[in-house]
Amino acid sequence: MLQIKNLTVSYGAINALKGISLSVQSGSIVTLIGSNGAGKTTTLKTISGLLKPKAGEIIYDGKNIAGLPPHEIVGRGLSHVPEGRMIFANLTVLENLQMGAYLVRDKKVVRRELEFVFATFPRLKEREQQIAGTLSGGEQQMLAIGRALMSQPKFLMLDEPSLGLAPLLVKTIFEKIVEINCERGLTILLVEQNANRALEVSRFGYVLETGNITLQGDSASLRQNPQVKSAYLGG
Amino acid sequence: MTEFLQQLINGLALGAIYALIALGYTMVYGVLRFINFAHGDVFMLGAFAGYYLSPVVNKFLPAQSYVGGALVLVLAMAICALLGVVIEFLAYRPLRSRPKLTVLITAIGVSLFIEYTCQHKSVFGAAPHKFPDLIPATTINFNGLVIGVNQIIVLVTTAVLLVALRFIVQKTRMGTAMRAVSFNEPAAALMGVNINSVISFTFGLGSALAGAGGILFAMNYASIDPLMGVQTGLKAFVAAVLGGIGNLPGAALGGLILGLLETFAGGIPGVSNYRDGIAFAILILILLLKPAGLLGKSTVEKV
Ligand SMILES: Nc1ncnc2c1ncn2[C@@H]1O[C@H](COP(=O)(O)OP(=O)(O)O)[C@@H](O)[C@H]1O
Ligand SMILES: [Mg+2]
Q: ipTM exceeding 0.85?
């Protein structure tokens, strides 16, 4: 479904991605793990068009989308839940979700998607009219995911959805990710520092280190890999 | 009492014009975080658009008719909207990813370019032009209180434009996109908002309001020249800062306050000479005491 070939991205003179290649099969959850500063966020931002690559291709549904503006990429069915959530803190929960459906012109479809999001995250339904900035961290993360779902994506990218959440909430968020993948058939690219959980829910994984993919394989085998164990799974 | 009411109306009419211009500064700041110093020149171009359009409109409609005046206003607004979009496209868009200081200096350059091009004798020329009477120059007299119809037109037009603006910003898809971009541009882009169209739209909208300000100003002060946007533009900028830059109701409020202060100060013997300095005294005070501006804290209305 998505295939990245030799992607190079730089911030001025700093090469944040040095020609990475990876692919995501339709219907699967693929995870990209790596420590702080490895280039995970850069990868997602480049796929969603917030950053322009220096070289390389991003093939989605057979077409190279590298370098397209973000609104065209969203329009093609890729949705990105950014690091730090970036919800519209001054808008209500409902207005945030409506912003997510910005490109959906059919009101009926918007209503249907809204029901789906509320069914997935009942907490958001309870807080529909609340100003989003007053939500707890976990609720904000749910809102960020819900908002991304409102654009009816086929491909969802999540940047560290568990960051800064209490363990119980982390569990809930990962359960929801699996639920969205199963029930909607949504393909998911999951970026995480919480490698343990991420490898549990995903089918395939990539390890990113300072701009290079250094390891890849079935998530189950990566979890057994001594290098991965010592570097990302706490021994 | 009559004198007070008289000054109140004069002040509101002047303040309404500042408000219309201030809105453009604040809207552009909202989406791009820089001060478009060429904005005052768009106000000037609005007045000149009216100057050249009026005789053309008079070919089809009776001179000094309200319909004709309204048509001149709408056409001048449209021309200014287009100019604003073109200025952004040519001068600012290529610098989008550059430091804000670069864009700011470019804006000053654009401003000087417009001012000096327009002063050339083959364009408008440097000499003041007498602005034609768009509507019948009558006054209404209430027990000694003399109100120019022009002033009523200024107040009514401004009120209508402010209501329309509020509707656009709060209720339309483009307005929602403007608010989203102003709150968090990358997040808005991830929702599918086309940032370039929003920025063009913002420039168009702000410039149209400045164009309306130019016409209304010219109707009241009769004389226009290519440098008329310099001082008025700066004062409107101060009004935007006073209200809280980036805040729409703040810009309108700041404009009205500034217009009232200037007008009342103009009526005080000994102070009247310093009338034009008031705006800058306010700027210094606001930067010292409340840098966020009067309404700057409430980010809810921010655009
Ligand atoms: N806006 C930026 N300007 C300059 N360098 C950046 C910027 N954003 C990220 N980087 C650098 O790029 C590298 C990768 O960053 P990032 O993609 O955010 O990593 P991760 O998400 O894996 O923590 C880091 O070395 C980081 O310092
Ligand atoms: Mg990151």
A: yes
Residue A131: DSSP 8-state:
B
Q: Which two tokens stand for residue B4?
A: 């007070």
Lookup: tokens for B143: 């027990």
Question: Is the Cα torsion angle B25, B31, B34, B38 positive or negative in sign?
Answer: negative
Q: Is B26 exposed, middle or buried (0-12, 13-18, 19+ CB in 10 A)?
A: buried
Task: Give the largest Cα separation in chain B, rounded.
Answer: 61
Return mean pLDDT, chain B.
Answer: 94
Whether the Cβ atoms of residue A20 and residue A212 lie closer than 8 Å to each other: yes
For B300, nearest residue in chain A (alpha carbons) = A90
- pLDDT tens profile B84-134: 999 999 999 999 989 999 999 999 999 999 999 999 999 999 999 999 999
Tokens 């599918």 label which residue? B192
Per-chain residues with Cβ under 5 A from ion ligand 2: A 41, 83
- Hey, what amino acid is at A181? N
C-alpha closest to that of B21 among B239, B250, B199: B239
Q: From atom 5 of ligand 1, which residue's Cα is the shortest distance away?
A: A11
- DSSP for chain B, please give it: -HHHHHHHHHHHHHHHHHHHHHHHHHHHHHHHSS--TTHHHHHHHHHHHHHHHHHHHHTTS-TT-HHHHHHHHHHHHHHHHHHHHHHIIIIIGGGTTS-HHHHHHHHHHHHHHHHHHHHSTTTT-SS-EEPP-SS---EEEETTEEEEHHHHHHHHHHHHHHHHHHHHHHHSHHHHHHHHHHH-HHHHHHTT--HHHHHHHHHHHHHHHHHHHHHHHHHHH-EE-TTHHHHHHHHHHHHHHHH-TTBHHHHHHHHHHHHHHHHHHHTSTTTGGGGGGHHHHHHHHHHHH-TT-TTTT-GGGB-
User: How many other C-beta atoms lie within 10 A of the C-beta of residue B133?
Assistant: 14
Q: Which residues of A have a CB under 8 Å from any CB of B?
A: 48-50, 69-71, 74-75, 79-80, 82, 86-91, 99-100, 102-103, 147-148, 151
pTM (2 d.p.): 0.91
CA distance B3 to chain A (A): 44
And the tokens for A111?
A: 């209503």
**Which residues make Cβ contacts (< 8 Å) with residue A107, sequence separation at least 6?**
none
Ligand 1 pocket mutation, candidates A7, A32, A41, criterion most atoms within 8 A of CB: A41
What lies within 8 Å, CB to CB, of B1 at 6+ separation is none
Burial B167-191 (b: 16+ CB within 10 A, else e): eebeeeeebbbbbbbbbbbbbbbbb
